[in-house]
Amino acid sequence: MKPLNLITLLLFLAGVAWALTRSEEGVRQIQRTYYAAVGPFLKSGATLETKARAFTDEVEHSKTVIAKLDAAEAELVKLRTEASHLRKLEEENIQLRSALKFQQRSPFSVKAAKLIRRKPATWWETITIDRGLEHKVEAQLPVLAAEGLVGKVDRPNNETSTVILLTDEKCQVSAKIKGSQEVGILSGQRAQHGDTPMLRLRYLSKEAKIKPGSTVVTTGRGGLFPANINLGTVVSSEVGAIDAEALVKPAVDFAALDTVFVLLGHQ
Fold first, then answer.
1. From CA 187, how far away is CA 210, in angstroms rounded?
2. How do beta strands 215-218 and 230-239 pair?
3. Which residues in the chain belong to E strands, given as ranges?
4. Residue 260 burial (C-beta neighbours within 10 Å; 0-12, 13-18, 19+)
5. Which residues of the chain are under the pLDDT cut of 50?
6. CA gap 53, 106 in Å, rounded
């Protein structure tokens, strides 16, 4: 044994012997001194243990809260998806009811058709519908929506047909401003972009008093389109050197076309 360790052991044994030879009061005094010395360390240890236990409980509680939040977020996503689906079904239901009412009250014999194809490059020019020669759909027949004129059949195939839209500059319609004697030619405009294509009503008289908000309808001239089919509403007008023309907002929402009707004849 090393000398230092031997000296330490002898001192410890001497201290024990000394304590045992002391009186009871002396032993108690030694105990009080010892507890006074180590008491703060014991209290500090108990406090640290309490804080450690509280921290552990807090971590476990946080894990439970996070799990509940994740479950609530997943449920919220599910509910939002279901709500979006229900809104879509409601919109489709409204469109179908509107189409059915139009078909029932229309004075014309019409064939309902669904839009099945539309190219981005010709968005405001043509659409393809799911009706063709097998359904008595022929070229040049007018195509309507509940709000007004959509266009005319261009190329019918056996089961489908291509429709030229009113917003295409090649679709020209004899039109008049309702409540006036002004008659002109309505057509779309070249290279239109955006969500709201506009129409141009040309060849009006220079003296025409055109009010914004006036309704534009078909005249029935030429025999292609029946008279008094809604075309749109005047937005503005301008007078040129020879005649006047008006900018017209279409009655039909061409950006949201879904169900259309091919006019086969009068009821």
1. 18
2. antiparallel
3. 108-117, 126-129, 142-144, 149-156, 161-165, 173-177, 183-187, 199-204, 215-218, 230-239, 244-250, 259-266
4. buried
5. 38, 267
6. 79
b or e along 91-119 (b: 16 or more beta carbons within 10 Å of the residue's beta carbon)? eeeeeeeebeebbeeeebebbbbebeeee
Q: Which two tokens stand for residue 235?
A: 């937005």
* pLDDT, position 27: 54
What per-residue confidence (pLDDT) applies to 154? 94
d(CA 118, CA 130): 12
Lookup: tokens for 26? 């002396």
User: To the nearest 5 percent, what fractions of the chain are helix, strand and coil?
Assistant: 40, 30, 30
DSSP string over 163-175? EEETTSTT--EEE
Question: How many other CB atoms are there within 10 angstroms of residue 153's CB atom?
Answer: 22
SS (H, E, C) 89-139: HHHHHHHHHHHHHHHHHCCEEEEEEEEEECCHHHCCCEEEECCCHHHCCCC
How far, in Å, CA of 170 to CA of 167, rounded? Answer: 9
* Distance of alpha carbon 170 from alpha carbon 140, whole angstroms: 13
Token readout for 187 is 């057509």
Residue 112, CA distances (Å) to 96, 115, 262 in order: 11, 10, 6
Structure tokens, 59: 């971590």
Residue for token pair 């002109």 = 184
Identify the helix (H) or strand (E) that includes residue 141.
none
Rounded Cα distance, 60 and 10, in Å: 51
In one-letter notation, the amino acid at residue 68 is K
How far apart, in whole angstroms, are the C-alpha atoms of residue 37 and residue 117? Answer: 91
